[in-house]
């Protein structure tokens, strides 16, 4: 009789929906590149064309009213400012892309860590623990959940990668749990949470948002050799954020 003990190996079949989010994030990259190019290469409209258009919109009154003529001149000066033109032309598009990239990327980042932790716990016969993981915060999942089976896992804090992880979570909460700024009888009783940012700053953050899911997947591959993360990274659809790369450990095999 054989003394060999056969250890039970569970058969795991997983089907996550994070791929639809990944496709959506990937699609945002092309739009981001167009916006970045348009912002950095914006050509202001000549003052003569602005003057002709603005004056035409006030004819014939502007020819008869000195106060109106003075107002129109002010409008022309404002419209002729290159910074005003660029913000007017692209500001709404950048803000829209900022919010879309923020929400999609955050959703994908959370989907990745949920899928990885749930699948690994199931393979260890400990899926019931995932109920506790689901109640953890977004930051707790990424910084601590893999330690349930990998004592050596350590999220690199103090660098750009963790800064992006923390920032995207704060911004996502600010937009999805909106809080209005209120003043009552001169006393501020409520502060808004959404940050006011310049357009160049928003463009920089869009890049970091779109890169973040791939950089986090790279972290899981390099530190834990999660096979699905290697496949996730193979397409390389997005130019990765150099700031995040500095926080990743050495290249995985």
Description:
α1 packs antiparallel against α8 (199-224), α4 (82-123) packs across α7 (160-176) and α4 packs parallel to α8 (199-224). The chain has helices spanning 18-40, 47-57, 66-80, 82-123, 130-134, 138-144, 160-176, 199-224, 227-233, 242-245, and strands at residues 182-184, 187-190. Strands 1-2 form a two-stranded antiparallel sheet. It has a domain at 91-245. The radius of gyration is 26 Å and the shape is elongated. By secondary structure, the chain is mainly α. This is Cthe-2314-like HEPN domain-containing protein. It comes from Lysobacter firmicutimachus.
Question: What layout of secondary structure does this protein have?
Answer:
Layout: H1 18-40, H2 47-57, H3 66-80, H4 82-123, H5 130-134, H6 138-144, H7 160-176, E1 182-184, E2 187-190, H8 199-224, H9 227-233, H10 242-245
Antiparallel strand pairs: 1-2
Helix pairs in contact: 1-4, 1-8, 2-3, 4-7, 4-8, 7-8, 8-9
Précis, in short:
The chain is mainly α. The chain has 10 helices and 2 strands; from the N terminus they run αααααααββααα. It has helices spanning 18-40, 47-57, 66-80, 82-123, 130-134, 138-144, 160-176, 199-224, 227-233, 242-245; strands at 182-184, 187-190.
């Amino acid at each position: 009789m054989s003394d060999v003990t056969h250890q039970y190996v569970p058969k795991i079949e997983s089907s996550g929906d994070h791929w639809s989010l990944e496709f959506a994030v990937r699609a945002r990259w092309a739009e981001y590149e167009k916006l970045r190019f348009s912002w950095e290469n914006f050509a202001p409209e000549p003052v003569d064309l602005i003057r002709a258009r603005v004056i035409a919109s006030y004819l014939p009154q502007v020819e008869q009213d000195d106060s109106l003529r003075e107002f129109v001149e002010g409008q022309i000066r404002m419209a002729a400012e290159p910074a005003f033109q660029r913000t007017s032309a692209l500001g709404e598009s950048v803000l829209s892309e900022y919010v879309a990239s923020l929400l999609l990327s955050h959703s994908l980042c959370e989907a990745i860590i949920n899928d990885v932790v749930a699948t690994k716990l199931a393979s260890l016969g400990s899926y019931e623990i995932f109920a506790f993981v689901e109640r953890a915060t977004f930051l707790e999942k990424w910084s601590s959940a893999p330690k349930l089976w990998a004592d050596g896992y350590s999220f690199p804090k103090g660098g750009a990668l963790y800064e992006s992880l923390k920032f995207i979570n704060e911004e996502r909460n600010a937009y999805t749990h909106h809080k209005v700024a209120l003043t009552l009888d001169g006393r501020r009783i409520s502060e808004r949470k959404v940050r006011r940012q310049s357009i160049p700053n928003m463009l920089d953050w869009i890049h970091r948002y779109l890169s973040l899911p791939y950089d986090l997947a790279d972290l899981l591959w390099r530190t834990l050799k999660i096979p699905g993360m290697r496949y996730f990274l193979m397409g390389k659809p997005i130019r990765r954020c150099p700031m995040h790369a500095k926080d990743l450990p050495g290249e995985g095999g």
